[in-house]
Amino acid sequence: MTASLDGLRLLDLSTVVAGPFATELLGHLGMDVIRIQPPPAEPPWPEKPPGAPVTEAEGFTWSLARNKRSICLDLKSAAGRAVFLDLVRQSDIVYENFRPGVMQRLRLDHATLAAVNPRIVSVAISGFGSSGPWAEVGAYDVAVQALGGSMSITGTGEPGSIPCRWGVPVGDIAGSLYAAIGLMAALEERAVTGRGQAVEVALLDAQLALNTYRVPQAFGAGATFDTPSPRRGGAGAVPYGPFRCGDGAWLVIAVASNFWPAFRAVMALPEDPRFATLALRQANQAALDAQLEHLFLARSAAAWEEALVARGVPAGRVNDIADAFAQPQAEARGMRVALDAPGGRQVFVAGDPIRFAGEAPLPQRAPVPKGADTDAVLGALPGYDAARIAALREAGAVA
Fold first, then answer.
1. Is the dihedral of CA 94, 74, 370, 171 positive or negative?
2. Residue 329: in which H helix or E strand, if any?
3. pLDDT digits (tens, 9 = 90+) for 36-46
């Protein structure tokens, strides 16, 4: 098993999703990720029996705080700031998602960090970056998705339908992943120059970048985009999209021209000159969709999926989250991971999609209560003795 990032240490000041999503992944790949949160510390989590439901708050913790250690440190106090700088001397990355200016007010900006460790890489994620008229404005994921353009082309496709955000905070997640890429690039440059640098990612910039091929289409051809039809695919593929099946479940198909003969055979569609070419299928889509709506009602979504996939036709049921992870393909890839919680309870989390050839995935580590590793980290890294840690705790600098 490859702990690719073993030997690297990251001090994680980030919160919610925009930062922790990436640091959880980096921790799984071997980086020593130390969450730094303000006091007070949490008591040990209570034991819950097997099968106890996972609360919404627990979902965030078990998904985003795993594969990390945790200490409580008051960065607003002089003593806490001194402890943090001692940790910076022993670390490679400082990673935060405060609003621009917060690290300067804490006197922990990149210049200050580099003065104690010239090799440090600092990573800052914010809604709009440190420049521009909105630099000081806070951001939520839904606002970033709206401002970034993607909500204008996400929805039901029906006239007058309400703009729709993704079901997960893709604006936060994209920014977090770009930050991970940026910090790895900075570490590669440090290997050459011997010096760290500051990396900045704005969530809006990341969301704009996700528009990819829509950007030259919009500017180069003056194209505008309505909310796309749920039954018209890339390059105008028809038939395409969701169809309700006999068991009431939905099946999605994506029948490009090269899949049309196999699809027609599975569906037992008679030859019809109206559907002989892609252009004709596009022109007669309403008639084709009407036939397919009737045919799909003859069998369950699972039965149609099995038959179509067996012939190489792209198709898949519209799963809910639990079904998505329970399907055989996801199980075979190890994408549902069970973590042990106090009391014999198990909490299921998403696995790591990164694989290394010929090696089993690294084990996932359960999250720990806030502040659980304070004594261990301060004793091992700056080398504080028990008396000094106790004095810091008495002063409220650590917990």
1. negative
2. helix 328-332
3. 999 999 999 99
The reported pLDDT for the residue numbered 222 is 67
- The CATH superfamily holding the domain 234-322 is formyl-coa transferase, domain 3 (3.30.1540.10)
CATH superfamily of 9-211+332-394: Crotonobetainyl-coa:carnitine coa-transferase; domain 1 (3.40.50.10540)
Phi, then psi, of 53 in degrees rounded to 5: -65, 150
Tokens representing 179 are 């930050």
* Length of the chain, in residues: 399
Query: For residue range 308-361, what is the model confidence (pLDDT) as tens digits?
Result: 999 999 999 999 999 999 999 999 999 999 999 999 999 999 999 998 888 888
| SS3 label, residue 28 | helix
- Asked whether 288 and 281 are in contact (CB, 8 A), the reply is yes
Residue 162 pLDDT exceeds 90: no
Report the alpha-carbon distance of residue 201 to residue 385 in Å, rounded: 38
SS3 5: coil
Distance from first CA to last CA of the chain, Å, rounded? 35
Q: Which sign does the torsion angle of CA 116, 118, 123, 124 carry?
A: positive
